[in-house]
Please model this.
Amino acid sequence: MQGKNWRELAARAAIEQDPNKLLEIVNELNEVLERQQRRERNVRTLPSGKRILFVDDEESIRLTLPPVLQERGFRVTSAASVHEAEDLIKAQDFDVLLCDLNIDREGDGFKVLEAIREINPNCVAIFITAYPGLESAQHAIQTDIDGYVTKPADIDELVGLIERKLLARRIQANGASSSSL
Model:
C-alpha cells in the first residue's frame, strides 16, 4: 500500500461499479488517509520519549524487560510478532522501537522498522539480537538504525542509549524547526 496515494484511490472509487470492490477501495482509502494524517502529525511533533514499542518473540523477554523499562519512566507496549507489531503501529504512536532482529524469521525486524518509519520517520529505532551478524549489522547501518544491541542487554546501557538517541532527535527537530523560521 506504500505506493498508493489517496487521489488514485478516490479516482478508482469514483468509477467502480461493483459495491463490494467499492467498499474495499473506500476502506483502503480511509487507511491511507489515516496513515498520512498520523505521519504528518508525527513529523510536526517532538517525541515525548516515553512511548516504546517492544517487539520480541521470546515470551520470557517480553515479560521481564518491559517492567524494568517502566520503572525507568517509559510506557511500554509489547508485541510478539511482526503482524502484531504492524497492527500496533497503525493504531498507536511510538517514540521508540525496540525490536528483536529475528522475530518470526531471520531479519524480519527490518519489516517492523519499515512499517514504523513509514508512519513516524522520527522514531528512534534500536535492534536487539542474540545472534549478531556482520550482514545484519551492515543492513542496519544502511537503513539508518539508531542502535544495535546484543542480548542479554545491560539495562543501564540500553536506557542510556534510548535517552541519548531521543535527545539527539529532539535537538535535530528543534534545529530543523528553528532553521525553517
User: Anything to note?
Assistant: The longest strand covers residues 124-129. Strands lie at 51-55, 75-79, 96-100, 124-129, 147-150. Residues 19-44 form the longest helix (26 residues). Helices lie at 6-15, 19-44, 59-71, 82-91, 109-119, 134-142, 155-179.
